[in-house]
Each structure stands twice: as structure tokens, then as C-alpha cells.
Design brief:
Structural class: alpha/beta
Order of helices and strands: EEHEHEHEHEHHEHEEEEH
Low-confidence stretches: none
Largest sheet: 9 strands, mixed
Number of strands: 11
Helix content: 25-40%
Shape: globular
């Protein structure tokens, strides 16, 4: 194995390869596949946009037999995802190198039953002053795609009766709803994530939606990551696959 690679467990049955000097999977990448009501049948198909090192799609194999495809613009992460697929001997999961702004070049419209994405969160104007590795910036900031690009790609790819799911920063929720409305999509489920029950504000939000003009959002119970003593909540243990 290359010196800058490490093997990390991401679910009960699967592991992924991650680069030591690259942006690694964070809590939101575990929360999204837990939240998403993806189809389970092998006859269905799922695509993950901005798939990074492939962790989300690999976790999804725990709950779905559907065909899973990933689309990622960073070539080194595409190759890393392929290695993780081989490491786990997973079938019916593939990764493609490509730009979500060019999805029409790769796919026909209304191709997928479910579209899932953990996109870059921060507008370019919010980039920090400190020096970060370029990979980190691409993963965290809207350098190569923005929220509008993501929503437009989702609208093009999702089937009429399909669904999509996103994880994002809570302060961007109005932007998410606005972009969805512009593109004929509607949010149907929202779950706000808090550090713990005493936290004043939610920092992460999980949303699921579909092609619709009807705004009938279901706001689910808050998700708490930690108990007040700093230990993981029982639900967070389920997310991480911690079995006691």
C-alpha cells in the first residue's frame, strides 16, 4: 500500500481507502446515507454526485442492492474509489470521472431512481485566509461547482417518481429551497442535526425531495450527535455502526 494511504472502517462490513493528505470523510458523510431512503431493489439505480473517495456509496451498499454509480471530478479520488471498491469486492458499483456541470454529456435525462450528494458547502467568497491543500478547498468550497449546479444536475438526472437527498450547512437551507423551487423540485423531508440537545443552533441539515410543485415539508425529530457527557447518542452509534 502507498505510504500516504490508510484503511478506515466506514460500516459494519466495509472499509475505504483514504489519503492522509486529502480531505477525509466527516460526520456528515455518515449521516447522509443513514438518512437517505434509497431504493433497496437491484432493479433500481442510484447516483452519487461529488462522490469524493466513494465512502457514501460504499456505505449505501449496506442498505441497498441497487446499482450505484458515482460521479467525481478529481481524478485521484476516482482512482481511490476504484481501489476501495476492489478492496471490498463490491459488485454493481462503479465510478466515473466527470464534472456535474456536464451531466448531459454522460447521461440521458431522468435516468436515476435516487440522486444523493454531499456537495461543497461554502461560497468562494467565504474561503478562509489560511493556506489549505487544494483538494481540501475543492471538497469544502464552491470552486468547481456551486449549489445551483448541484440542483440543476439533480433535476436532470432524477426520474419523475424518483427522489434525491443532500446534506448541507443549515445556514444554506433557504438557498437550497430556493434553488429547488427554480428547478421544479421540492423538499419533502428535513432533519436538523445538532451537536447535543443543549446546543442552541443546528449546523448540519439533511434534506430529501422529489420532482414536485407542492411544498409539504415534513420536519423530522432533531438528530443529536452527542450526549451531554460527550459520549455518542444511541442513534449516532447506529450511524457509525458501533455495536455494544
Amino acid at each position: 500500500m502507498e505510504d500516504n494511504l490508510r484503511v478506515d472502517t466506514v460500516s459494519k462490513n466495509y472499509k475505504i481507502l483514504q489519503k492522509v493528505d486529502h480531505y477525509s470523510m466527516s460526520t456528515d458523510s455518515f449521516l447522509l446515507p443513514y438518512f437517505a431512503n434509497v431504493p433497496k431493489s437491484f432493479k433500481k439505480n442510484i447516483i452519487e454526485l461529488c462522490s469524493g473517495n466513494g465512502g457514501i456509496s460504499i456505505i449505501l451498499r449496506e442498505k441497498s442492492d441497487a446499482k450505484i454509480e458515482m460521479l467525481e471530478i478529481q481524478e485521484d479520488l476516482v482512482e481511490l474509489s476504484k481501489k476501495s471498491i476492489e478492496l471490498n469486492e463490491i459488485t454493481n458499483v462503479i465510478v466515473r470521472s466527470g464534472d456535474i456541470k456536464n451531466v448531459k454529456d454522460y447521461y440521458k435525462p431522468s435516468t436515476f431512481d435516487y440522486v444523493i450528494c454531499n456537495p461543497p458547502y461554502f461560497p468562494v467568497e467565504n474561503m478562509p485566509n489560511q493556506r489549505e491543500k487544494f483538494n481540501h478547498n475543492i471538497s469544502r468550497h464552491e470552486l468547481l461547482c456551486n449549489l445551483s449546479d448541484v440542483i440543476q444536475a439533480i433535476r436532470y438526472l432524477v426520474k419523475q417518481n424518483g427522489k434525491f437527498a443532500l446534506v448541507h450547512r443549515t445556514y444554506r437551507i433557504s438557498d437550497i429551497i430556493s434553488e429547488c423551487e427554480k428547478n421544479g423540485l421540492a423538499i419533502k423531508r428535513i432533519r436538523f442535526v445538532y451537536s447535543k440537545s443543549s446546543s442552541e443552533n443546528s449546523k448540519i441539515v439533511l434534506v430529501e425531495g422529489s420532482i414536485s410543485k407542492v411544498s409539504d415539508i415534513k420536519v423530522e425529530q432533531p438528530f443529536y450527535i452527542y450526549n451531554e457527557d460527550g459520549s455518542y447518542t444511541d442513534e449516532m452509534k447506529k450511524v457509525y455502526g458501533i455495536y455494544e
